[in-house]
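Technical appendix A lists one of the benchmark inputs used to test multi-chain prediction within the project. The record comprises three sequence entries:
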Amino acid sequence: MTSLPVALLLAAGFLAPIAIVAIYSIMPARTFVLTGSVTPENYVAAFTEGYWRPLMWSVSGALLTTILCLLLAWPTAKALKSLEGYRATFVTILIALPIFISESVRLFGFSLFLMPAGGILAGTMDAAFDVSIGSILNTRTAALLGMVYVHFPFVLFPLLLGLSQIPEEQREAARDLGASNWQLMREIDAPLAAPGALIGALFCFVLALGANAEMRILGGQSVTVITHAIEQRFNYAQDWPMGAALTMLVIAITALLVLPVFRRIDIDRLIRR
Amino acid sequence: MVEASEPRPGILSTHGISKSFGELRAVDDVSIEIADGEFFTIVGPSGSGKSTLVRILAGLDRPDSGNILLRGEDITATPANARPTCMVFQSLALFTHRTVGENIEFSQKMKGVARDARREHALRMMEVVRLPREYYARPVTQCSGGEQQRVALARALASDPEILFFDEPLSAIDYRLRKILEVEMKDLHRRTGKTFIYITHSLEEAMVMSDRIAIMRSGTLIQTGTPHEIYRRPESRFVAEFMGEVNIFTVADGRLAELGIAAAQIEAPYLVVRPEYLRPAGNGDADFRFRAEVTNDYMLGSRTQFHLDAGGTSLVAELPALAAAGIAPGDVGEWGFDRADAVPLAD
Amino acid sequence: MTGSNNSALRVLRSMWLLVVLLLLYVPIASVVLASLANTRYMRFPHRVWSLDAYAQALGTYTTANLHLTSLSIAVAVVIVSVIIASFGALAFARYDWAGRKLFRRLVLLPVFFPQPVLGLALLLYLTALGIVPDWKTAAFAHIVWVVPIVTLVISIRLYHYDVAQEEAAFDLGATRLQVFREITLPALAPGIVSGALFAFLLSWSNLPISVFTSGADTTLPEWLYSRTATNYSPLVPAVAVIGTAASAAIVLLAAALRPVFTRKR
């Protein structure tokens, strides 16, 4: 059975940690053992003590990021698809490359670009046009832009994969049958690219849900996101059970979204070319 | 056709081999005797178990019960790599990362034969299957369908097997090329003198090439015989219908039920008549006669096929072009067939 | 559709792609620009353009140490994940077996999982097991996340692989070991090379998992992350550029050596 090593790894490195977190989440607050009496108090506290705020920030931030990424990815995917031969490959590689540059480098660059007075943008504007501009650094807007910037490729590539599987004959047939550009998109492109778009959106949402660095580097202290709140519970407050309960909530939201999509979508068909 | 007048010595025999996958009995108590040098074809629809059977014969699968003898020696437990047999797969299973030459030389390389000797042997095999020498260094992925077929054949022959198995190697090939390769296959069989055991779902293909044919259905061999026997004397409606369009009549109370005519002295419950034996019988010279209307005609080349309506029963007749002249849809007349051309069937 | 309409659309699309590329690379270019200063505070455009920060970065023990930590993790991740994922890919893409559907979902789960949450869960798990986190635990955490991705990368290459090739080789007299060496391994090779590149780059650049699982050891992205908010100097962008260039160099080297691994394609 060649599946054994992967299965063992994921059992020991993925499922077991989640199980441990699940157990911690029902232990009494501020304890460090796994054998205490079972209690729902952490979950109660999660909803009554204001933790819903960071959770909502994370969920709404992830949602907004996903929508913006989809809106940007659609025309980009269409434009990429219309390129031919080696130009398409070249541009695709250029778009993919930044994924492999560390998030911290890219977000750092983003903040250098946006820095007020002396930042790359503000400095250039000042020197070249003698215009001094304000800065959006340390605002929610900057953090959101950073989120879109980081997660854009994760929507684009699944969408591109979905689009590439639409047989050109089907589009030609639709056009031949009298479909306008708009109808072509609504009747052929959108439904056929839907699995790819859905995978991309899901990917983006789940990754953005845990996003933390964007807010810290670009958002300043404007908002506390859920991962940050969890980290604080673990590190500063030394309240593992509370942190575990919040972690379980994020995992639950993820599972609620991911599992139904997994059931629906045929990964085989999407990967096979 | 050289019919074996003296019995050829047996090479491969199976005794009651069976194999199940869960509830499904894919191969059910199959016993066959195959003669040395024979072209033996197993024909059956998809799901009949023929592929499982050939995989067991090749040693790729182990039967649940029964045994396999090669020249009298039990090889049931011998794995495929230790059997002097070789299989040509449905997908051909060419090694896509290798050249034509490397594919053909593979079995020799495994045996540790020196490079030069391997190359010489491979080139000889390419000659046998009529593949030009310059293909030797070509990647197999750059060969056409027919060329890949020949590479697969050469690769199998290069291992010098006593028996070659074929698991529907022509099924993915277009009609014209398939016809050419069928003839080549038969020719190759004659030139090499090896035993060929061939699997196909096409009885037509089997008829062209085989010395003997076995018909397989639901895991069992229901009839074995020469192509002639299978065609002229099917033992069941399944075999009769498998060959193509036939007319089947039910015999009840001494009459052919569908036509309502007397059928004295026919004991069997069914009577099969091939389309080419139905003919116009206006002059009353056929043993069985009935009135029918021609509903459609189809030009088949040297023959014409007619669909007939005999009092609500649809029948098929095929006539040579000359005899077909002047018959058109709408014609109503006497049709008939002779007792000698009708095959009584028990099942 | 008319011709002029069509060409207008084409121009529009090219412009759009150009804008997208520009936006994707502006932050990266910003890092490079910022690194070319020698003043403590960022005042762009620089009065003096210099490579001092690079000289300083290359001379410090910290830079070498950060690279060593990241490299140790990445090398461990590449070796272990490629081996595990190769077996996984065979099960994922090649053989039909009863638990395959479940297995595929299990493999995909960690990919569709918030990375910081995975890091946090692993931290809690390690602590519960009494293991003190260091670069080795970070490597393990990376492996958990990277193996599914590498499995997918290798699987994609395996979809066109005909399993009957192995049976054919066996039937032609090859032993099980010969079948693996002559047929299975060459079929896996291109996927393994791509998979190794993915594993290296993903591990090298990872921040969200490392932050929680590397303990007292610090990886390159972690250090950059901690220095972006506080203690700024041109040294920080310089180290970022060096780190990125190092990974690019390693990838280019691997790409140049690629034909060696996948000979006879």
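Residues 4-270 of chain A form a domain with the MetI-like fold fold (CATH 1.10.3720.10). Chain A is about 75% helix and 0% strand. Comparable benchmark entries are summarised in Table A2.
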